[in-house]
Specification:
This protein has about 140 residues and is an alpha+beta fold. It is about 30% helix and about 35% strand. The site of zinc ion (ZN) has 8 residues, from loops.
């Protein structure tokens, strides 16, 4: 996926996450939290509630998806409400002559898991490595 495509989808993902974040702070959102908390209070402590959005792009040919952004809200009896936004860094590469932009942690060629701990950084799925198959791009 080229940087300009990634940036547009990332803007939509960011706006989607912002809407859910704003919802939890609104009157209807606070009412929803109150209703969830009321039900949890009547249930055994082992129950909890999770609400999340995962904004992903799926590629049929790769049979893989990129997770652009995620937001989660967890409600657990006896604990403070937990809100988590996952906002991965943008990573731009040139792979076999083509620009490829992916969130951190994804291979720019096959979208598999991208290991930063290996030297050079690379993909355990397709074998793509920085310096051999991919170059880090400035944009
Ligand atoms: Zn790969």
């Amino acid at each position: 996926m080229k940087t300009e495509h990634y940036q547009v989808l990332d803007e939509v993902a960011r706006a989607t996450v912002a809407e859910l974040t704003a919802f939890w702070k609104s009157d209807p959102g606070r009412e929803m939290i109150h209703r969830i908390r009321s039900v949890l209070a009547d249930l055994p402590e082992c129950y909890s509630t999770y609400v999340g959005i995962s904004f992903q792009v799926f590629d049929d040919e790769r049979e893989r998806n990129l997770t652009l952004r995620e937001t989660e809200a967890m409600f657990v009896n006896g604990r403070k409400d937990l809100f988590i936004d996952k906002d991965p860094d943008l990573c731009s590469f040139v792979v076999e002559g083509s620009a490829a932009t992916v969130p951190a942690g994804f291979c720019p060629r096959c979208w598999g898991p991208w290991g930063q701990e290996s030297q050079p950084a690379g993909c355990s799925r397709c074998g793509c490595t920085v310096g051999e198959d991919a170059e880090v791009s400035g944009s």
